[in-house]
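Q: I have 339 residues here and want to know how they pack in 3D. Can you give me a structure?
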Amino acid sequence: MKIGITCYPTYGGSGVVATELGMELAARGHEVHFISYAPPFRLDTSNDHIHFHEVEVATYPLFDHPPYALALAVKMGEVAESAQLDLLHVHYAIPHSVSALLARSMAASRNAKLPFITTLHGTDITLVGADRSYLPITRFSIEQSDGVTTISTYLKERTQREFDIKRPIEVIPNFVNCDVYRRHDMPELRAEWADGPDHGAAEWLVRQKGLACDVHFLGKQDRVYDKLSQADLFLLPSDLESFGLAALEAMACEVPVIASRVGGLPEVVKHGADGYLVEPRDVAAAGKHAIEILSRSDRGREMGKKAREDAAWDFCASKIIPLYESYYSRVLASDAAGA
């Protein structure tokens, strides 16, 4: 198949999953075209089946903000026509599914077909889509998609409930390449500058507690599995996670996880088996479980091995990518039948 993929090319989970999906599809012989304003940070273009198309947005004095959604739609249409794409797969509803909808309409005007699939990742529903000003267009773009997937059952149910979506939604969970995300010996961690909106407050707290020698701020990292291989415990104290890709990556590297019992995390972490789930912001409970794992090396290793086993059984790329391939085929068949 010839597949166009659009995502945010940043360090967020949706961009990571979309990029890894494209690379896995290319490794299986599909022709993959990434369409975005910048190359995704994890994208490896050494595979001849991977292509990147930059969306260039012109600035005009008339516009306060560059019209990215329109420029993206035009580029989608151009790539679809020149590369003869079978379908578009957009990650994150706003604005990508709206752009894909415009591209499909432009293709139809020249008697061409360009079905598109929208994958919902979380904040496009829980934050952006829930804003009343965005809700109608988010609902419309989801309903108009030729196929819709979510990364967890939690997100599917929340989307159907909050947006009153009637069309079928397929759950295809996030995944990891289990050949890459595994435990292996690596050199010592190298400290780098912290990033993110809370790094200043976090550094101040570390200094106040006298922990500067024990806490390292690593900043943005590409080879996350190298760092996870040295960890004894992974903490994910989020207020909300639609899936919890970071937890899955840690589990694949034999690291037990302590996470909040929110969103899709209970679909990933099995409480008491490969990690622990605590109520959001329950620092005492998280600390109790952390001490148990860190003070008993046998317990930590036992849970870590179980975490790897569960991650490999449920979420390896080798099991999830065929689900996407099958879904693509069903959408294409349905689209052809409706022609």
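Q: Anything worth noting?
A: The mean pLDDT is 91. The first strand starts at residue 2 and ends at 6.
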